[in-house]
Amino acid sequence: MTAYLLDVDTGIDDALALAYLAALPDTEFVSVTATPGNVDADQVARNTLALLELCGRPGVEVAIGARRPLSIPLLTTPETHGPQGIGHAVLPEPSGQVSERDAVDLWIEHARSRPGELTALITAPLTNFALALRKEPALPDLLANVVIMGGCFYYQGNTTPTAEWNTHVDPHAAKEVYAAYRGRPFDKLPIVCSLDTTERMEMHPEHVRQLAEAAGAMVPELVLPDQPEGQRSTSDNALVRHLSDALRFYFEFHRLYDQGYLAHVHDFFAAGVAAGTLEYSARPATVDVETVSPLLVGTTVADFRGLWGVPPNARVVSGSNPAQAFSELVSAVGSLAARVG
Known about the structure:
Elements: E1 2-8, H1 12-23, E2 27-34, H2 41-54, E3 62-64, H3 78-81, H4 103-113, E4 118-122, H5 127-135, H6 139-142, E5 145-149, H7 165-169, H8 171-180, E6 191-193, H9 195-198, E7 202-203, H10 205-214, H11 238-256, E8 263-264, H12 266-275, E9 280-289, E10 300-303, E11 314-320, H13 322-340
Parallel strand pairs: 1-2, 1-4, 2-3, 4-5, 5-6, 6-11
Antiparallel strand pairs: 7-8, 9-10, 9-11
C-alpha cells in the first residue's frame, strides 16, 4: 500500500493522474490539497472532490491552502484547461464538502504522525509545499518520497520560451522548495518530472478508443480531428465519458498551438513515477529558479556537472518509456472505469 499526500490544481492532466492513482489497488489517498494554478483554488477543490467520487473514492479529505502565489498575482489558464479546468467535461456536483482545515496544516500533521510512510506528489505550483516547508523545515525528512511535476531544462518552455507553467505561476515558491533540499541525503531529494520528459507523454485519440474498449464500453469512443470542436461524448461509461470530454478539449488546445491533435499528459507521468509503475531514469542535479529577470522569470536551471559547487537538491528525470506508460494507463484506468462506470 502506498499512502499519498497529493497537491493538485485539477486540471485535465491532474484529473487523469488522479484517475490513474485511484485505479491502482494499493493506493491510499491520505489527503488531497488544492493549489491555485490551472483554475482558482475553490474550483480546484470542487473538481478534485467530484473526480474522486466519480473514480469510486468518496470520503477523501480535500482541503485548500494558499489562494494565490507567494509574491505575484495569480495567473490561471482557461484557454488550456477550460473555464472550469476540466475541458468540455461537466463533472457531477460532489456530495462531499471541502474540508475546513488548512492544506498546509494537514500536510504537516500527516507527515508528523506517519514519518517515513507518505509519498508526496505535487502536480501544481509549489505554493502550498513552500508554505509547509516554512512551517515545518523537517518535512523533507518526514516524507518517504517527493515527486514534483514542473520545470524544463534542455527544453523549450510551455508558458514562456524558457519557463514551464507550474513553475511560472509561482517561481518564488519553487525557488524556496529547491533551496530547502540543499544538503539533504540523496534518497530524500525530490524527483522532478520536467517538460523534457513529460512532453514525451503524447496521448492520442487511439488511446482514448483503447481506454473505452478496456472499460467494456458498448460503443467505440472516437475523438477525431475532423469532428466538430466541443463535440460531447455519448459513452455509456460515465468515467470514460468525462475523461473523453476533458481530453478532447486538450487535443483541440494542442492543435491550436500547432502541436498536433494530441495531449501532453504531464501529471499522469508524474503519478506513475510516484507509484513506481512507470519506467524512468533520473540524474542528480542542483536546481534553482529565476525570480527577478522579467525576461526569464520562472526559468529552472539545473547544474548537472557541479559547476556551482553546490550539492544536488533534486533528481531530475531524464528518461521515460511512453509506450509502456500508455499501455499501463489504458489497462489501469480502463479496469477502473469498468468497475465504477
